[in-house]
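Our consortium's second objective concerns turning raw sequence data into structural hypotheses that experimental partners can test. To show how far this objective has progressed, the report includes one record in full. It was chosen at random from the queue rather than selected for favorable results. The single chain below, 240 residues long, was entered without modification.
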Amino acid sequence: MRGARGVRTAAVVAALVVGVSACGGGSEEEDDSKSSSGSEEKQADKGPSVLVKKANKAMAETSFRASGSTTAFPGARQVMRWDPEQGMHMKVEGDEGDEVREAYCKEGTSYISTSLLAASVSKQGQKVTIPDELGSSFVEQQGQGCEMYFKVPDSAKRAPGKDTTVDGEKTKAVTVKGGKSADVYRIAASGQARVLQMESKRNGQSSKSTYEGFGESYDITLPPEDQRISMEEFQKQVKQ
């Protein structure tokens, strides 16, 4: 394999499958954000706004299910389940036959299926072939916390012009823009500040996810230890 850099990048790309990573700089919504009022809706000069902080706290502390399309794999459907005690499980399926791509995360460690990792690498222009013996394996990666899979970026800015209702519930919208990427997070306007919907645009692709099932019980079981491999082992065995 041509070095480790491409595969290490793929681990980050796998996290982007749920479409929730920060897009980076840029602020085409700046004028919109200036029209908001109230301390909760004002973007601080540094750090996340009060609304974003509340949303991330509520989502981290509550179980939920999110489902919808994904910009990472056009034509596929993604389903994510989160439980603060059990961790995160994400499944991507439907764009290439019956192949299922999965990722788990618990206590800051991700377990990414080799099929998802290989597909993410291929999307970056680096074709790899997974040996049969690694077909059911999961690559173990230390991360920045499992919340990275659904966290609203600290740079998100209030966008009242994009407020709407989701399943009859009023929401407050925040946006993140950078380069060819744009995300809109719609947060419940009353009660718990939970994210109810997210829309993304990346490199000409669009997706939408809906969040529901808050507080429900989800059975999330991590891959058994004999199916886990290190990134180094993955690098040694994959074929490019």
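The partners drew two points from this record. Residues 1-46 have pLDDT under 50 and may be disordered. Residues 40 and 50 are 5 Å apart (CA to CA). Both points have been shared with the crystallography group to help prioritize constructs.
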